[in-house]
Amino acid sequence: MQYDVIIIGSGPGGYVSAIRCAQLGLKTAIIEKYKTFGGTCLNVGCIPSKALLDSSEHFHNAAHTFETHGIKLKDLKVDMPQMIARKDDVVAQNTAGITYLFKKNKIDSFEGVGSFVDKNTIKIAKADGSSENITGKNVVIASGSKPTALPFLPVDKKRIITSTEALNIKEVPKSMIVIGGGVIGLELGSVYARLGTKVSVIEFLPSIIATMDAGLGKELQRVLKKSLGMEFLMGHKVTGASVKGKTVTVTAQNSKGEDVTVEADYCIVAVGRTAYTEGLGLENIGIKTEERGNKIPVNAHLETAVPGVYAIGDVITGAMLAHKAEDEGTFVAETIAGQKPHINYNLIPGVVYTWPEVASVGYTEEQLKTNGVKYKSGSFPFKASGRAKASMDTDGFVKVLADEATDEILGVHMIGPRAADMIAEAVVAMEYRASAEDIARICHAHPTYTEAIKEAAMAATANRAIHM
């Protein structure tokens, strides 16, 4: 069968690219090795983790803030099997939605492992041992990523687990160790901490969410420790782990070189993700992956060294974010169709879905200092926000960074209620190269959380925030 475009992988990058290709009139096929579409994000990543985050946040609020609101409950308890079942239903709804969209857009889908025979021919190896070949003028590699393994710490998927298994624990553990203070570890750790689990985070670096603005990591660590009782072992190098019965023992060395031992019911290994490029047959078409992270090199058009073969999402350089992959999927589809799309990688926001949420776009203060850029900074705390006081969400702040000479916004960093949604205002402003004064002079509805963005912009413009 001959196609204009064949896409390997149906995660956010792959399925969005397929739909956009079909919209542009290209005959499109997509290959997925699992029985459901959506990749890591919809099946064992973004969507199920957010379902559990929401459920656990409801429980935590019921246990800790409802009485202050005048809502009295008794005999409050967690029904973990039901919480997991609801999460599974949310996943099923979303994956079914992708199936519907493929049919609507007349996209041919194939179940099996796709690999290159040559640059235009893809072999689909099926679960029953059979295979078939399809051909296409263009191929898009969107095979995603998998949890990074530590060679000295084998995952048994029972007590030493990855983020995938952490989504299906059927009881509330008494204790849990999270190796890695990044987005995945903190989100899953906070799920169980809200339900009553004692969570210990072991991080090699001196700060959590280390790729984001330093102020965000410092504030998030403070809040998670205060509100959820999470323990943080910073600057600790994990050296091994063992399981005896139902207990995991993790060994580490602190910054002084001293040995540290931590025990818990479960240990989540969340030290990042690695591009999933094995089994694609890249060697058959002369594509070599980079040594670090198995990434596939691409040019400015996201085309590999082989003409007509593109790669997007987690398999190429850059942040491993679903929305980055979606934008790249659209970019490649429009490029193949002869259009001239663009992506501004500096304006792809990053989000941590803890509570408070953390969101960031543009340059951090650390980057601006390193690059020698003269800037001005304005911050506004949520404890000064009327809306945040009303909802009892007063932790966190918004920080706006602007060019010292031109006032153009260079970065916006926030930790607070609904930061994941509010960051879009900053992205829009920065796409249009707005100044801090532009944001300061836009009328924001009152009372809203977004007023904090306006106040921070006012503080950056002329140190004239009204409510602090």
UniProtKB/TrEMBL annotation:
Q: Disulfide bonds, which pairs?
A: C41-C46
Q: Which cofactors are required for activity?
A: FAD
GO CC, any one term = cytoplasm
- One matching Pfam family is Pyr_redox_dim
Q: Where is the active site?
A: H446 (proton acceptor)
- Enzymatic reactions: N(6)-[(R)-dihydrolipoyl]-L-lysyl-[protein] + NAD(+) = N(6)-[(R)-lipoyl]-L-lysyl-[protein] + NADH + H(+)
Domain Pyridine nucleotide-disulphide oxidoreductase dimerisation residues, every copy:
348-457
Gene3D superfamilies (UniProt xref): 3.30.390.30, FAD/NAD(P)-binding domain (3.50.50.60)
Q: What top-level class of enzyme does the UniProt entry assign?
A: oxidoreductase
Which top-rank group of organisms is this from? Bacteria
Q: What is its EC number?
A: 1.8.1.4
| Residues that, per the record, bind NAD(+) | G180, G181, G182, V183, I184, G185, L186, E187, E203, G272
Q: Does the keyword Oxidoreductase apply?
A: yes
Q: Which NCBIfam families match?
A: lipoamide_DH
Q: Other comments?
A: The active site is a redox-active disulfide bond.
Name of the protein this chain belongs to: Dihydrolipoyl dehydrogenase
Q: Which organism is it from?
A: Pedobacter antarcticus 4BY
